[in-house]
Amino acid sequence: MERTLTQYIRALRAAGAGVSTTEAIDAARTLDVVGYEDRALVKTALGAVLAKSVEEKALHGRLFDLYFNREAGSEPPADGDATDAADDETSGGSGDGEPDAEAFMELAEARDPGRTAMALEKAAQAAGADGIRFASQASYFTRRMLEQMGVKALEQRLIGKLGEHTPQAEAEARRMMDARAALQSRARAVVDERFELFGRAATEAFMNEMVAERPIGALTRTDMERMRHVVARMAKRLAVKHARRRKVRNRGQLDLRRTLRANAGHDGVPFDLVWKTKRKDRPKIVAVCDVSGSVAQYVRFLLLFLFMLREKVADLETFAFSNHLEDVGPILQTREFNAAMDHIVMQVGSASTDYGVALEDLETKFGDVIDRRTTVLILGDGRSNHADPRLDLFQQIADRAKRVVWLSPEPEGSWGMGDSCLLQYRPFCTHLSHAATAGDIERAIDEMLLAYD
Amino acid sequence: MTQPMTPPSLTTPAGLASIEAVTAHLARAGYISTPEISTAVFLAHHLRKPVLIEGPAGVGKTDLARSLALSMDIPLLRMQCYEGLDESKALYEWKYGKQLLYTQILKEKIHLLIDGADTLDSALAKLSGFQDLFFSREFLEPRPLLRAMEQTSGSVLLIDEIDKSDEEFEALLLEVLSDYQVTVPEIGTISAQVPPLVILTSNNTRELGDALKRRCLHLHIDFPAAELEARIVRTRVPEVSQRLLAQLVAFIQRVRDENIRKLPSISETIDWARTLILLHADSLDPALVRSTLNVILKRQSDIAEIAPKVDALVAAALRDVVDAV
What are the CA-CA distances from residue A246 to residues A209, A279, A308, A372, A453 (Å)? Predict the structure, then answer.
């Protein structure tokens, strides 16, 4: 049972649950206390010890059934020690490390189902099937398992029989081929199960990492769905990272008034010292997004990001513009995200961009949303179609805001080329960077929130 | 980790002898338990580990601690967490006032004490005995955590809404939770004679630290299924009729599937049952529901969301009841 438990913990870790050594030891102690006769009880008990969040509980629920169904299938009714003895006997019977064709046939035809299951289990272990990471490795591991069970000897004999050309030999050959096919499909089933246990989550994590660093412009439709999860995870990570308390203690600055009051009961002798505290600003973000054709895709991710962060950034204003600027906060709040985005792009993004007018709209209509606590986040390529970029207005906004962060979907090389005014805006920005992937956007927002910590 | 499997001081009270015993004891205190809850409590005692309970507000997280204390007849020590909670509120504090008073007395009687001491050294030697006196147990004001360690008959220590406290406070808890001891620099380490049963609750307003989670068993209590909820309401509001109970629980279950901000929890179900009894209702009808909606929904926007759907929801709930029978 000890080995089974460590194997199971490995499977949990592979699936992404952070099980520490202490928790593994606790799990062993738990089994000592509750025993392992009652499956449901073992499941709940291990759930309390090993899974420390709702997601991990769900993971545990799924994996436990998967894993211990397998265990139940492969273990003979006798107890653990007998299994070892039976194991030795199996390998001993078939010669030392050289499995023969006859043993293979016996297993394939499942004359003793329990024994076949056990042999499969052993072969899987010897072939290292637990190490499977990708679905494409399945046939490799299946073959390795068959080799462990002596398929080579069988194949040699099979070639011999096929060369004999007698009806009896052919019938024999057919029997062997059927046996091989039967065992192969069973071995494949075992490998697939291992993949479910150890591989799938690892693959998922790998794919998620890939998609986060892929240029947003080059994402396919299937990537988009995955992206939603990735962005949700990133947003959660950021929210946790920046969820610090909002008060800091200024060590060294005594608050005399409050100290005197707190110590009135001690005859004015200052036992409890009260220090001055400074409240920190809550993050306040004004996102101004260019939603004209080329940039719209990037805006979608930025807004999705900010939208998922709204627990942390309660004070969020969103504006979209092309040749005029509109407050899109209400649309985003009332509609489902994708529908809202389509609506915004249709309503605002159909004309050619004019940064000058957009800045003018922002300043005249919504000027009061920007104050010294505000970070202004601009997403756009700075291509104003040769209209006046209104640098004077931009400077006014930059002077008033806490920070101005500009994310450009274009790489640094093309800034200032053609009708791009990015280099003219640059001196007024606190931070200007190229944001090509979801990872870039995450880093930019992380940095923005850092200014409030 | 380094503790032996069964510490010698660990005696198991009858209420914790088996998982069934936990369930039975809790039921006697009026708390309807699930296998998950009972298993967690059982393990908490046998592994000497705290239980961290997460879940939505009002599903009986705090109530579990109260019922445990009640059913096993041991004291409940409750510590409500909030931002800025520190060790002088959680662990211990020196009784400054008393220390001050004793200093005054000492000052007045000082000539009696150092009488006959001709040099400063001998006077100090005579006085040094009193210095320790001021930092002894007598001047120590125990706060909930230390008080829990001092209980000789065992206790239930409830650390409520740990997510509201600061991260520093979490670190402070680690010593208490893993070794069941409190260190007071002037006195030494005070270990628990009988380790308390520790229950921590969290509403998940922030992610708790890994170090804390590692030391705890984790229990997630969600909204109960209809049948369990009906049993819970029956224990709390025995005078409710079978028919009304089934209907109102079915309605609440339906409401929880709706897209609203604050889902009604068990405490709201219980309040609603009491309200309906006061109104002498014996079955649900849309008008009645609409007029009492503010008992189960606490946000104006949620009420606005549900109010137009009351007819459909009541009809669906009544159908659920018929189906169940």
Answer: 32, 6, 21, 18, 8
Chain B, nearest residue to A265 by Cα:
B97
Cross-chain residue pair B43–A54, CB shorter than 8 Å: no
Residue B40, C-beta contacts closer than 8 angstroms, at least 6 positions apart: A48, B51, B217, B219
B112-129: average pLDDT: 77
- CB contacts of A268 in chain B (<8 Å) are none
CA–CA distance, B33 with B38 (Å, rounded to integer): 6
CA distance A353 to B54: 49
- Are the Cβ atoms of A23 and B214 closer than 8 angstroms? yes
Which CATH number applies to A284-450?
3.40.50.410
Query: What is the rounded distance in angstroms from the CA atom of residue B24 to the CA atom of residue A174?
Result: 64
Is the same domain home to B117 and B81?
no
Chain segment A290-310, per-residue pLDDT in tens: 888 778 778 888 888 888 777
Give percent helix, percent strand, percent coil of chain A, each to the nearest 5: 65, 10, 25
Full DSSP string of B198-215: EEEEE--SSPPPHHHHHH
Do B249 and B294 form a contact (C-beta atoms < 8 A)?
A: no
Residue B83: which domain range? 14-87+145-220
Tell me how close the Cα of B323 comes to any Cα of chain A, in angstroms: 28
**B316 and B260 housed in the same domain:** yes
- pTM: predicted TM-score of the whole model, two decimal places: 0.70
Question: Which tens digits make up the pLDDT trace of B167-195?
Answer: 788 888 888 888 888 888 888 888 888 88
Q: Report how far residue B238's alpha carbon sits from residue B275's, in angstroms, rounded to the nearest whole number.
A: 13
- The closest CB to that of A32, out of B5, B35, B97, belongs to B5
Same domain as B234, residue B174: no
Strand order in the sheet with B197-202: B76-80, B156-160, B197-202, B51-54, B217-220
Dihedral in degrees, nearest 10, Cα atoms B210, B213, B219, B221: -50
Percent of chain B with pLDDT over 90: 27
Are B169 and B187 within one domain? yes
Q: CA end-to-end span of chain A, whole Å?
A: 48
Structure tokens at A387: 């209209």
Contact A243, A311 (CB under 8 A): no
**Residue B145 has which token pair?**
């955590």
What b/e readout covers B263-290, taking b as 16+ CB neighbours within 10 angstroms?
bbbbebbbbbbbbbeeeebeebeeebbb
Place of tokens 């004077």: A392
Q: Hey, are the CB atoms on B207 and A243 less than 8 Å from each other?
A: yes
Phi, psi of A216 (to 5 degrees): -60, -35
Same domain for B292 and B185:
no
Contact A443, A437 (CB under 8 A): no
